[in-house]
Amino acid sequence: MPRRPPHSLKAPVAPIRWAESFIELIFPERCLFCRAVLPPGAGRALCSSCGRLFSPVGFICPACENLASGDSSCRCLTDLPFLKSLFALAFYEDQWRLLLHNLKYGGRRSLARPLGRWLGFEIMQGQPCRPDLVVPVPLHRRREKERGFNQSRLIADHAARVMGKPALPLLAKNRDTLSQTTLSRRERLENVSGAFSALPGSLEGASVLLIDDVYSTGSTLKEGARVLHARGAVVSGAVIAYNPSAVK
Ligand SMILES: [Zn+2]
Ligand SMILES: [Zn+2]
User: Fold this and answer.
1) Digit-coded pLDDT (tens) for 23-57
2) What residues sit around ligand 1, an ion, with C-beta below 5 angstroms?
3) Domain span at residue 153?
4) Which ligand is nearest to the CA of 54?
5) Residue 67 CA to ligand 2 centre (angstroms)
6) Same domain, 73 and 158
7) Based on the structure, what is the number of domains in the chain?
8) Separation of 10 CA from ligand 2 center, angstroms?
9) What region, left, alpha or beta, does residue 162 occupy, with left being phi > 0 and alpha being psi -120 to 50 degrees?
């Protein structure tokens, strides 16, 4: 019997196709690296020349954080019960670092569209993850107010639209944690522990794709996944960029 998400999760998917086509006509999709105009509806936001120099990172084992070959499984055979798989589009380096920096701190929110669409496109190519819904990692409301947006929410919205799934902000951040960038792996875990809560309601049996912009130690994504898992969801993660060397 096909698994169905709980009734409360039947939020409308938001593909208003004519509006999307109209936007594409005025602001055609461009290559993220060289700005060449791309054909309408391109899944990957790189032109053919730049695309030849880049292949997506793919699946990373959430337990040992090594690259998993081909699909989401890893030979280490350890398992994080609350985070089943993790997909990353790119390594957090070079142009990718710049793109995400421009999005988050340079106010270039228009970058969320090609990044999110591309992420959604790649997820749909892979076998291991067929989510019922997409959930963004939240920012604390004070941080979101300062920035004017939550980049993970924007990325998740665009990814979900490509996937034809609802994007629901089911997680909330209860306290404004310290910036993770200056902390050790252990401090990061402690910093986000208990920082998230899920909106009321059961997620029993729902397959959830939790989206964030960057994965470094994974403490944020794993804490979000743990909270959704506690509500009964089967959680996979997806990020734009993986930063394996950030913190040891
Ligand atoms: Zn290009
Ligand atoms: Zn592993």
Assistant:
1) 667 778 899 999 999 988 788 999 999 999 998 99
2) 31, 33-34, 36, 47, 50
3) 57-242
4) 1
5) 8
6) yes
7) 2
8) 34
9) alpha
